Records
---
Amino acid sequence: MKKKFDPKTFTWSGVVPQTYAEENSAAGRQWRGTSRHIIKGREEGGSFDVRYFEVEPGGYTSLERHTHIHSVICVRGEGYAIVGSEVHPLRLFDHLYVAPGTPHQFVNAGSEPFGFVCVVDSERDRPQALAPEEVAALKRHPVTGPKVRP
């Protein structure tokens, strides 16, 4: 099934933007200014899903981990990803692999929307928030500390 891309609105035909995730600050799932667009979902068959995430200026995804991998390609704007104890700047067409079980967060570092395509397994686990002591360790780390949001 083809879904036509419209560069003026940065959307795909038939794809309705959704809320990124349920925010649950008590469980460590905090995020801001992020939407999720399912370009190819599990209901269309196959073993993978293709999603587009868009992060507004000043926005970020939740700091979390999964047992499945992420294959991410930046397609709009610029930002960075915290992956474990590393920070990776992301610009147009950069690719990033997030290994299973690795804490990660995506942050918009610019004044324009930051968008990335993320390919994951159709059958996958739910996001897992980091334990408070893990978040505290990342915030103390000299590389990730200044970059972790919120």
---
Amino acid sequence: MITYRTATIADAQAIGILHANSWQQHYTDVLSEAYLKEQVIEDRLEVWRLRLEKATNKQHIILAEAQGRICGFVCLFFQEDPVWGTLLDNLHVAYNWKGKGVGASLLKAGHEWSLERDANTPMHLWVYESNKAAIAFYEKLGGQMKGKATHHNPDGSSALALRYVWERNTD
């Protein structure tokens, strides 16, 4: 059974490791091999430690847990953009939990959190153009592509990303 809850500082390490593993599995065409092998774990652990230590009321992180382990998470920043609204900054699901509804449930829970705060605030995210599986997933859940931009990555590289937007609900 999968349960969902708000993350705490005690979850920083598990979130960081899941995030790093996800990047290692899915971003070999976006991030450098050296970064993925030598730096990504340390980098993501530090990112999540800081995010959870210095959390604001505009940030919300929801965890999916099964058998006492984190199997996915979503991180949102409420009204991060004046036009596009709440930023869904991260959505990652452990490899062995993909295809079981965890990602869809996390996306929906995150969007509901945003709409509860302001029903007129859209939600958006950035996805690498090369991440075809994620793009298909977001489109299946009602996301609409509304723009492109070059994103600068933590390894010093850059890649084209697409903005996907949800105006109201994700049903």
---
Amino acid sequence: MSEIAPSDVTLVLTTAPSAEVAETVVERLLEGGLIACANMVPGVRSLYRWQGQIRRDDEVLVLMKSTGAAYDRLEAALAEMHPYDVPEIVAVPLSEGLAPYLSWVMAEVGGSDE
């Protein structure tokens, strides 16, 4: 097996209006092989400007581990199933990581555009 570069693995963040919605989305992405795992962090308070007004919402932060190669498919699937009109979907390539963990993420997601 070739060596995995940390930048091949991507951390993708989104928010959800509830734990139930977050879990449903994560399960569908796992079943589709688009992410290796996700952490759901409840109790996030989001303040943001939307349509000219400042909004405040309680949300669940979702941290998903995927690959750069799978990102476009992940983004499309997440945007389609997400309940928000404009969901937060951002990706952060990793600069460092434990090699066995990175290999596991790559193996779970596949790491290629099939």
---
Amino acid sequence: MPASADLKTSFAPVASAGTRLLVLGSLPGDASLRRAQYYAHPQNQFWRLMGEVVGADLAGAAYDDRLATLRAAGVGLWDVVRTARRAGSLDTAIRDHEPNALAGLAATLPALRAIAFNGGKASAIGRAALIRADLGADARWTLVDLPSSSPAHTIGFERKRTEWLKLTPFLG
């Protein structure tokens, strides 16, 4: 059985009644857990990509300012996994996961237009959780699969940027 240090827990959601776009990762990596911040690994491209989406320099901003800018733009953050065992930070190492209550959160967001999944693992777990809650094909929300912002996903930034910019219309 894995050591208890391998048990990882997600953060609380960052969302409000004005959230129009909910971006879901899989589970915070070790660097994020150590700093208690979403996407804290310096090579993760999340803040650069979301900066392109919302038109702000998020990568160069302080963490609290990053979150405030996302909230003001109507963007929420959370993860699809509540708890799991995982040695290290790779999504492929996630074991024995329990999903977050995605449908419950989405039901509290009256302005929600889209749910985006940051990477394949987030999409697989998140879509399955929504389907189990009979919300997998909910016409109120568009479900968007994105290439992972993780440095482990090695396609180039420009290709990721092209896909992530497809989120912009949901914020208008």
